[in-house]
Amino acid sequence: MRIKKIAIGNLREAFIEDRLKDGVNIIFSNDNNKGKTLLMQGAMYAIGKDPIFPESFNYREYYFYTKIEISGKEYEFLRKKNSIIVKSENAYQICNSISEFKHFFDKEIYQLPRISKDGNEGIVAPSLLYELFFLGQDKRNTSKLISAAQYDKDDFKNMLYSMMDIDNVVLDKFKERNLKEEKIEIESKIRSLKKKLQTIKANPKIAEYSSKNINREEYEKKKGIMESINSDIAKYRTEQTRENNRKIKLESLLFELNSLNRFIDTGKIKCANCGSDKIIFASANSEYNFEISNMHVKKRIIESIKEDIKIKEEIIEELACKINSEQEQLNKEIVETPPDYRDYMIFGEEIINDKQIEQEIWEANKKLEGILEELKKKNEEHVEKAEQQKSFMRNVIASMNSIYNEIDENGVLVFSDIFTKGTETYSGSENQEFYFTKIVSLNKEMNHDFPIIVDSFRDGEIASSKEEKMLDIYKSLNKQVLLTATLKDEEYQAKKYKADEKINVIDYSNFADSKILQANYNDEFIKILNKFETILGKI
Amino acid sequence: MSIYTFTNTERNNKKATEFETKSLLYLVGFRKDRDQVDLFTIDCFNDVTGIDKSYSELWDIQSKNYSKFYPKQIGEFLFTLYKNHISGLNFCCLILFVSKLNKEYLIKENLDEFGMDNFQEDTRSRIKNGLIDKLKNNTGKNNEEDAESFFNKIIFVQDSKDISDYIKRITKFKDRKIRNNDFYQNIFEEIRDVQSAKKNSCIENEQIEKIEDVLKFNRHLFKKEIYTLIINRVLGCDIFEYKSIPISFKNETDNLDTEATKDLIQDCKANLARAFFNKNSNPEFWKVLEFTINQFDINPKADIYRVYSGLESSINIKSKHLDRKSLLFIISIIKDNIYAN
User: Fold this and answer.
1) Same domain, A346 and A390
2) A143 and A194 together in one domain
3) pTM to 2 decimals?
4) Are residues A449 and A499 in the same domain?
5) Is the model's pLDDT at B235 over the cut of 70?
6) Is the pLDDT of residue A177 over 80?
């Protein structure tokens, strides 16, 4: 994969970067706040990464565009909020959620790794994949993942194993027993809470409680917030219903097709000469010789419909998660209501308990089912795969240590994992060295198809001699590497990097502070938007 | 203890039919002059005979699949081809399609296609004698002189390819997908079965005056039917796999919101799946595909609405599944996925 063009903007201001080349690129400036991070994060956000932007930048108001080349084909991505349009040479696709996007990406662009999570095997979100080759400037913490909130570091390792085709799941034998106990506990909890609810409902006067003491203005504000959450919930519910309708339609189509496809079981006519069961009546006027489809085609159609149904199920589940989280937010609002709004409080108590129980049962059941399924499926091949995984990890770590020694001969660190323990987070130059050795070693051991992208690659005051060695290693990778750096005045004056022919240098120093987005890019940016023409109205 | 052993039964029928199909596909895909051949007759003039669009030239193939050939036997197998050569009809090409020959017979053993001059001297004369002796036995005459012009014309083709190679070769478009062998095997078998069924009628002693009269026996297959068959199978396998909206279909979705677009695409795909499963829509759907493919053959950039209105005026479509939107959808898919490559 190669990044060819990045653009960010709206109708008022924009910026376009199309000077990127193969090999090592360094975008630098003589001061901070010139927009390097915005560009790096924007490029990744357009292709489905979770947003990590500076607080002051309201990314929801902008379009993010990235053009990439992958496996010899070009794709253009245009994202606003959670909708992404993907355009290839002769087709386009609108994805209204990251889940939809990931399925499309997986099917049409690049097959994403699969990992087991909570017992279900699923495609990883793009954000997790991008941790493999993208390092942002902010939120670095060597003991965990930077982005990809729903995943943990074991998921990341499992993803690596999946990409190396040595995936397996390490199971905790006691998990099953613990979960069963948890379930029994929740079941009894439900019973007691249901009783409580009944008591509340049996006394309707509680709900009619007067609200005359309420501060009107505060009340309206609170009401507004809740109404907005409620409208989001309603929107997700509608989406969920439509997906569900589509799923039901596909299921009945499957039934219909299967009944059209039925053979007579009592026997088949066969050609006595050649044994074929395709006997046709050859009338003198028959216009068409071939059947409209064969068993192979029919089987493929049935399989694809089943696959589609599975994707729909996943989308429906994702929407259920969103509804749950909005519901939680609503409940939180209710809890935080001042004591004066007692009617709300009483009403809220009912909702909180009800929803919490449902949520807990739902989660526990899901967990349990998953674990049982997982135990059954994976136990046998477990040992062998675990050994392969260990050996892979050993190689990566050995490579990290050897690269570390190469760039820092006097260094005292010894790495024992691709994440540090929670208690020993590296900072400063050690942090930078750790990430450098990790990202390069993973590339070396996996020989993956992606570029290397590091925002602020000398963060932590890396010594010049080390930096030179790091750059030599980057150059030796023979792939696209995008780096950003803020130069000190004396370095900038000395035209650092410019002497190196193998590095494509791009200077952002001339932009005014925090003003990378400018009106003079607008025409060019509108041309990009125009490529997406009328589809644009839909995101 | 065995009492009686059956021998000389036609155990090789399946293999022989398969070989005839290979020879037909050779004519469709491997010959330099393949574009001139428009249709094929089965078991009329010979096992397989190609005919051009204006019914003026004939490509004649005799196929023989033996594990071992003797030179004299090869000569005898040329009998029907020779008869056609002197028949007065314009046979522009005469081919004996055989399994791999003993390499000692040949000068350049690796050639797939060659004339008499590629046989070793003694093999060549034994082949010639084989035919001349057979002619003497059958006609009582010595035809040596006539035979010489025949020997200069006859072409031998050795089969060295897998079934899937024959189908892949005639896939006109650039197929992006890697398909397993079953896919090709199935198509091959379908062609084989149709070819085999063509022989069920009896035409012994029937006569024709002009080449085109052969059509009345319904023992022919048009080349475009084979192309349509392959495109049809690709479409059938992939119809639910196309995850993007074809760009040519964009006009249909422009005024819809995303949810309605998704519903429309799913409905179109469902309708097409029904068409692939429903035998009653067989002739209609074939006509639709054949017509559409023909239009894009003439102009790969043809407008989908033009193709659709042409379709509407020339085919009486009764199936309710093949509605306007579903037809526009399949036309767009053919244009964007098959012809755009």
Assistant:
1) no
2) no
3) 0.58
4) yes
5) yes
6) no
Q: Domain of residue A146: give its range.
A: 2-171+381-530
Distance from CA of A519 to the nearest CA of B (A): 30
B145 CA to centre of own chain: 35
pLDDT digits (tens, 9 = 90+) for B182-204: 888 888 998 998 888 888 777 77
Q: Does A250 touch chain B (CB under 8 A)?
A: yes
- Mark yes or no for CB contact A292/B285 under 8 Å: yes
* pLDDT > 70 fraction of chain A, expressed in percent and rounded: 75
What pLDDT does residue A485 have? 93
Residue A65 CA to residue A82 CA, distance in Å, equals: 13
Distance from CA of B8 to the nearest CA of A (A): 15
Using CA atoms, how far apart are residues B214 and B44, in angstroms rounded to an integer?
Answer: 8
**Angle (nearest 5°) at CA B102 between B99 and B106:** 105
DSSP H or E run through B320: none
SS3 A439: helix
Separation of alpha carbons A353 and A361, rounded Å: 12
Nearest to A415 by CA among A401, A435, A395: A401
B206 CB within 8 Å of a chain A CB: no
* Residues comprising chain B, all counted: 341
Judged by CB atoms closer than 8 Å, whether chains meet at A90 and B336 is answered as yes
Residues of B in contact with A90 (CB under 8 A): 246-247, 336-337, 340
Q: Considering A300, A335, A364, which residue would you say is the last residue of a domain?
A: A364
Count CA atoms within 13 Å of residue A339 on its CB side. Answer: 0
Q: Does residue A376 lie within any of the structural domains? A: no
Domain count, chain A: 2
Tokens of A474: 């980057």
B40 CB within 8 Å of a chain A CB: no
In this predicted structure, what is the pLDDT of residue A172? Answer: 47
**B17, B245, B276 ranked by CB distance to A292: nearest:** B276
Same structural domain, A392 and A292: no
Question: Which amino acid is it at A91?
Answer: A
ipTM of the complex: 0.76
Please, which pLDDT band fits residue B172 given cuts at 50, 70 and 90? low
Q: Is residue A204 part of a domain?
A: yes
Listed range (A511-525, B135-149, B251-265) with the worst mean pLDDT: B135-149
